[in-house]
Design goal:
Elements lengths: L7 E4 L3 H13 L4 E4 L2 H10 L4 E5 L7 H11 L5 E6 L3 H10 L3 E4 L3 H12 L1 H5 L1
Parallel strand pairs: 1-2, 1-3, 3-4, 4-5
Helix pairs in contact: 2-3, 3-4
Length: 127
């Protein structure tokens, strides 16, 4: 169950995907902000407090894995979740190396919400 007031930041250059993920998380009770530009997302992550980053892997200018790698250096305590359509073994390995779960698209709403709940659970925070 969602607790806390900091929003989840959802980053995806596909407006439909971004809106669908945001709606699913809002329906689950989470406050959400969305961004379609990963450069804007990096600025927001540097300036504001968030509970979680959910980012697509394949985006223009900065791919999601690079955004998460930067996040690991800037805010190592902030959990992240990557999403990707048809992730290849290299993408999976890079996400694993960052310690970030990768949710393949298309996914069911329950899979997204479940992944977010696991990342935000008290046990995940202690790990």
């Amino acid at each position: 169950m969602p607790v806390g007031s900091d929003p989840i930041l959802v980053v995806d250059d596909d407006a439909t995907c971004c809106a669908a993920m945001a709606a699913a998380l809002r329906d689950a009770g989470y406050p959400v902000e969305t961004v379609s530009d990963p450069l804007v997302a990096a600025r927001r992550l540097a300036e504001r407090s968030y509970r979680l980053l959910v980012s697509d892997v394949c985006m223009p200018e900065i791919e999601g894995i690079a955004l998460v790698a930067w996040l690991r250096r800037a805010r190592p305590d902030l959990p992240a979740l990557l999403t990707a359509a048809f992730p290849d073994p290299s993408t999976r390995a890079r996400a694993r190396a960052l310690g970030v779960p990768l949710l393949p698209k298309p996914f069911k709403v329950e899979a997204l919400v479940g992944a977010v709940e696991r990342l935000l659970s008290p046990r995940a925070a202690e790990a």
